Task: structure prediction
Amino acid sequence: MLYRACKVMTHELGHMFGLRHCIYYECGMNGCNHIHESETRPLYYCCICYRKLQHAIGFDPWERYREIVKVCEEFGGLFENEAEWFRGRLADLEATFAALQSKYPQPTLGVKKN
Result:
């Protein structure tokens, strides 16, 4: 019951922050017309809706994923699959950031090299 309620709340909160129904990927913002469709929708947003939400409310993606993983682990049960998905996204985000840092190192400010 809690899992189903969280799916509905995630979807409706998306609308409150200006997101429309998603037509691009499997996403928590997909529209649904009956309970069977609702049960097949994920708890998470696709990359497009996630970015729209981030633009609307301005959160730190790393922190958000870490906190969502904690909540999913705490609830357990059906939330474990979602926790695994969020862990994967966090790992992807960290790997991409590390690759970009190695490719484009930050200049040292105020330190002269001899």
In short: DSSP finds five helices and no strands in the chain. Residues 32 and 38 are 6 Å apart (CA to CA).
